Structures
1.
Amino acid sequence: MEYQKIAENVIKKAKNLGVDEAEAFIESNRDFSLRVRNGDVDIVKQSSTKGIGLTIYQDNKLGFSYTSDFTSDSLEEFTKRTVQLAAVADPKPWNGLPDYGKEENQKDLNLWDPSILEIVDSQKIDIAKKVEKIALSCDKRITNSSGASFRDAESETIIANSKGIARSFKTTSASFSVSVIAGEGDNMQSGGWSSSKRHFKELENIEEVALEAGKRAVEKLGAKPVQTAQVPVVFDRYAAGSFWRGLLSAFNGDSVYKKTTFLSDYLNKPVASKLITITDNPTIPRHVGSLPFDGEGKITKENTLVADGILKMFIYDSITATKARIKVNTMARRRGYKGTPSAGTLNTIVKNGNISREKIIEGIEEGFYVTGLRGSGTDTTTGTFSVGASGFWIKNGEIAFPVDGVTLGGNTTEILKNIESIANDLDMRGSLNSPSFKVSELAVGGKR
Amino acid sequence: MKEYFKPVKRREFIKKSVAGGTVLATAPLWKLFSYSHPPPDMASNPPIDLDKETLGKLLSIALQNGGEFAEVYVEYNVSNSIGLDENKIRAATRGVDMGVGIRVLQGEKTGYAHTDDLGMDKLSETARIAGLIASGKMKHQSVSFKERKSPNYYLVKTSPDSIVPQDKAKLLWKANSVVRAYDKRITQVYASFSDTNKSIVIANTEGIYVTDDQTISRLTVSASAFENGKRSRGYAYKGGTLGYEHYDLLAAEELAKEAGRVVIAMLPAQDAPAGEYPIVLAKGDCGTFFHEAIGHSLEGDGARRKSTCFWDKRGKKIASKIVSLADNGTIPGKRGSINVDDEGTPSQNTTLIKDGICTGFLYDNLNARLMNTKSTGNGRRQSYQHYPIPRMTNTYLMAGKDDPEDILKSVKKGIYIKSIGGGNVSPTTGRFVFSVPEGYMIEEGKITTPLKGIQLMGNGPDVLKNITMVGPDLEIWGGGTCGKAGQGKPVSDGNPTLKVAKITIGGARIRRS
């Protein structure tokens, strides 16, 4: 490919300038989206972007820069500047390209669907119009639309470095979504839902997505705060994500090394209830969270972070692992070409339980079923978990009324140990997937 | 390496970087920058001079299927950053973003396309795609551009892009040594300096032709402390639309001391109590509260779509009489300050709430036109990859008359909020949540125990009614990057000392009574 050549040329240029090591990361995207509001097309947007990020190591010093200007004179200048930037940094003995060792061959994870390129505009508009129409008409209490959209995209990722690594993969994605408003005046609630897949044919049923959005707006009408209380709390599978996301950021190996995370001392120790097993698996074919190699170009594999409640590994990229002198499978995330890789999960899965969510709720005399979380959540320094929450109050094993405007607070390690049951409702929708679960007791902050 | 970044003026850099463009088969747009270019030593001369003929051509192509309005937005953006971590300069980095976004409007419809490939054929194609939403006949006549000049609200004498990273590193080293000397319980220090230097050109079929050079800079110091199993974090920053002349070793030292003060103050913090409490917000660094809780619900897109809680409240009382709120992009040097918005409309000072009455919304051109009003200069976009939407600039609660000491004394048991961190809001319900990096108990009118894990939760309409005291000591501070509809935009905010009579506090501690 043309971009592959550009990446390799930049590496060659850098080598000619005498650097120790160099890595080029190129990403190019094409993205089409449209939005429909109240039956009419409102916005159509077409994007094409590309960029190259160049990392240079010279005498253990790091230099980085990026550009979207691929003209050859500019790339020459760009490479020179990046080499010069490396001179500004201080040497760190652990700086450098990863050790790739013996790796498996790159797998085809089937992340590219050529049929996405063939969807005609009228079909995209129809999908958006249809999902909006059904969502607007599924309940009399729905009063307004915030819009429905369709989006399709293709991207190509290329990594090349002076160790001879030259890898690339392509992905496609298609998605549609809708958001509606229920109620009027001081009693308005919005609800939305979406479907996003690598393959067009796998998109969920339009009607189901529309009804889910409508349901989510209507069922919250009349939501109110409750009295401050300490009660059992059920985290819905879709709300659980932000709890796990906060926890996982405390798994960062460099923070562990610097002792700035509350999990620093938990390696190989019980950190959660025995019911909890957390893995990271970016190798599932066709999945939106999958990718064949990570942000450092290493072939991805499945890793276990927590097994039956025991913390099995922290998350390192190759530089932080070298620094901490730890031998683990590294996991590096990269947010596009504008930055260097850093340690992070790729596609995380909390293991399914064997009891239904309904059964869990049935067993609660008085408690809180959380379906929405707001705010940053976990303080990775102190381990304090504190968020805004909405959902439903549980009374005598049944959903009693909608709740909003309350907070949840607790200590993350205590919450993890107090996970009493895990539901069997795992739905692999994104890059962080969890079933619903119940915590035996948590502080719900509301009215006095 | 001493010739690295020899103080190159940004204009010259643009010129240099475009020289390479000639390898393209067709004349690249960037080449045009170099034609009528002022000598590099005249940085204060007119910004980018684009070939207006090319812009006019693109506008014509964009409207070839009809449509009422077309616009070309050209951006060239250089970002620099340098960070110090673990007693070492981690890296100096640099990035270049450039591209062109073309927009076509017809009725309520928006067509938008952008490209970073600046050959004329690719630009024409982009213009054509943007125009695909329109239908009808071409009505467009060629425009003669009027250059629009605006007052300057940026405090930039020396572009931070012209400073060698080695000089910026000196600030970081100073901050690092001052924080580490502040207290031996401080274990980690991170300091960084970053700047973005954006040059834009906006030309549209109404004949508007605007250029602007937007510099935003920031010096941040953060620290972690550890003692007896307790950990804390603290940070301090200075930033805005500021040139490098606003940063020196003294500024680095002051920030370092402030970061040290916060991290040590918060080290013994206890779990915050959950429940309803009165709060006192300290002046200056709590303005995010108003940005999120109120401001987003007063943006013109939500008002037009009737999807925010205040859409029908214009002219109505929505707050207690002591509440007045403004969004003001014209305050010199603030992070959200702009000479013009990203549609070329001059920046303004807009009163959103006056003595408790809702007086207006924030508009871009599209929403203003559909609502039969005028843009308030709030049509902003993250980059050429985005179409403009109504966004805040610098948002603040206006000064009142209550003595800050009396405000504190009036609270028997409550929470003192020294600064507000991240927050978010649902504009439909006005429901918000904020985290609080530095907060304390108030007992009998006095600030006592430091608290961790405070979340403020509530909704905008309720909070506005519960503001019972406002001090005269308005300060507009720092700010951050606001995210909306997938677009990040620099903003600032501010507030005087004030009291909210009751609000829900989230925390890990429950009163057992």
2.
Amino acid sequence: MARREQIEEVFEDTQKGKHLIFLLDNEYFGIEIKYVTEIIGVQSITAVPGQSHYVKGIINLRGKIIPVIDVRILFHRKEKAYDDRTCTVVIEIGEVCIGLIVDRVSEVVLMAEGDIVAAPQVSGEKQNRFIKKIGKVGNEVRLLIDCEKLLDENELESLEKLA
Amino acid sequence: MNSDLTRESLLEVFIYESQKLLGELEQAILESEKTKSIDDAAINKIFRAMHTIKGSSSMMCFNNIASLTHSVEDLFYFLREEKPAKVDSGVITDVVLECADFIKVEMQKLENGSEPNGNEKFLAEKVKELLLFIKQDNGATAQKDVKSQSKAGSAVLETKAEKKAQDASFFGLRADEKCYRVTIYFQEDCGMENIRAYNAVHTLIECSRIFRFIPEDILENNETVQTIKNEGFKLYFCSDMKLEELENLISQILYISRLELDEVSLQEASGEILNQPKETVEQLATTSVQEAVQPKGEVETKPVETLSSEVKQVEAKKPEEHAASTQKFISVNVAKLDKLMDLMGELVISEAMVTQHPELAGIKLKNYYKASRQLKKITSEMQDTVMEIRMVPLSSTFQKINRLARDMGRKLEKEIDLEIIGEETEVDKNIIENISDPLMHIIRNSMDHGIETQEERLNKGKPSKGRIILEAKNTGGEVWIIVKDDGKGLDRQRILEKAKKAKLLHKPESEVSDREIYSMIFLPGFSTKENVTEFSGRGVGMDVVKKNIEKLGGVVLIDSKPGEGTTISIRIPLTLAIIDGMIISVGKWRYIVPTISIKESFRLKQKELIIDPEGNEMLMVRGECYPVIRMEKLFCVEDGKKKMEEGIFLMVEDDEDAACLFVDKLIGKQQVVVKAIPKFIKRVRGISGCTLLGDGEVSLIMDVAALVRE
């Protein structure tokens, strides 16, 4: 009986605490692995007019059409040309699928609950709206992206647009 | 765990079946109400529906539904067998609809995952009383019924009943039992005191042993009504229930004005009782036990068996309708259909990729092309068939509206004639689910705001019955649903004033067209009604309607004539999935314009372009003037051709409006699979969807209607 419970516990925890780390210039960011479905190279993007400036357009992912966001633009950095190491991280939150274009993908790390703390509040900077928590890896710090906030922000903007 | 899974699927089937049956039942009873009589076909339909629901709900252990349907079944059994002459169909309709509503509410609870715990006792009592009333009204048949029902019982049943009667006549008290006497007085003018007294007997016999009641001949003798009125109805019984419990139980019987419940000793009781023939008690005991709504196996089986054999006979008589319908349909999980449709879409794309492969360009392959044409034909037909599978007729939605109109008409005291045209029009299942709420809202509006009271109508010279026409039709690529009423129309002035007050007017008053004014009612929070009623007035309806319709890719249009009425049309694109499109290029992007919207294409010279004082560009074609829409400006495309000579014009139209699109090149015609714009992307006016071209690139599909309507 006890063994069975143990096994079930392990099964549940496989994804918990694991984050995918990616790079924008020299800064490392993390995203919870439970949201990530796949990582692909950059494909040809079809632009869609009337979107937020960080939404680059839509791509064809094996028959599924998903929107892609350029995270550099999202965090107010200068746009860089895509090279062969630029990746699209496909995340899925509930029913919504989006692709995030990042400079490089680094690794997957396991962060214990104690290593994750709330991010300091600096008002005014848009970057902070998507970063709720910070994770510690060794001596370094990774900014963890709040995926659900990405969706909410988008909702808000569409509502504002309609009003 | 395994049983949970099967219970889930059983539950789903139960809900689905019962809802279907309830829908048919409602239809049948509403028809009967219109014709003011309940014909055999309707009775059978309703009886069967109730019988089936009773069976399945008993199996699922939803006893309240089972008990209610049982009473209705009894009622309709009587109607079918005895064919009573004096029947008030209006009253029956009301009761049946109330029961149907109760069951619907319970279904709703089940769907939400909660317990169906509604108390059906009041309704069940009502139905039983109605049945008794009809029996009473139609005279001696009541007595015959009592006897015939007791004969229909099995041997097991009879001995049980007899036993009960015997016990009663033994006058022996069991452990914990006390002897009671209760005198019941009914309310003045409640009518049918003898029937109500019988009800009391029935209620008590379920939990106690009645040995006498006075007067005894309540069912056969109408004079007992007077006796009960004067002296009250007396019952002597033994029960192990406490005094308070008994009082509660008895006071739940309808129309009781007061009751006197006393504990008596056996000697007193026997002393007070006059000599009455034992048979009455036995008879009543038998029938009560039979009619007892306890879902105990044995008691129920025999009557049900006899009934079911009769039902079989009835079914044999009506082979065409019912038997035919059970064989023709099969219920399919919607997820499977979705998957089939997706695969079909992929097949169309693949077929295009094979037959139009760039590597084949220019090579002469006669037989190959013959074969590929054949392939295209078959794929086309398959695609049409798969689309049709998902299509469901609108009639179920329209019938719901029938019911709504009837109920609302009653509440508002307005007589409405609802004319339904084209209910057999079929639409995709998705659409049906999302359109019924908006439609109901629009009808509610028509009835509440639009149609005037009978007085007002007569004063205006209109017929006293309001008229609402609900029409559905298929027009090429769209389904149109039109709601037209002959009420007082929209008040242009009031809307204008409200808009001004709410600062929603962006143009000078004189320039606002009628259509624009009427469309203001779609803005959230807009309502010109002063009071909020149960049905409307809060201003939350129309904008939700508009959003819901737009979610389906459709539009809502309003037209109105003051004093004459309002027409609201909903237009929804029919086949969301696959359309014929023309690929056009603008800059480095390719877009698709649905061929159905393209009227013609042509080239023009720069000087033929007309520019009006505000800078809008226009064209003259065969004497008509059309606005020009430059694609590259619209979608902010770089490198789009700007000079007239370098590009080409496409005249596109939607219903009444038309415009000329200026694009770079026409690439070719292709059948495309429409894919919805992903949720994250914000809706853009002018884009209705996207698709994958043969080379894998994503292309946006233009929404001509939105562009042209400006």
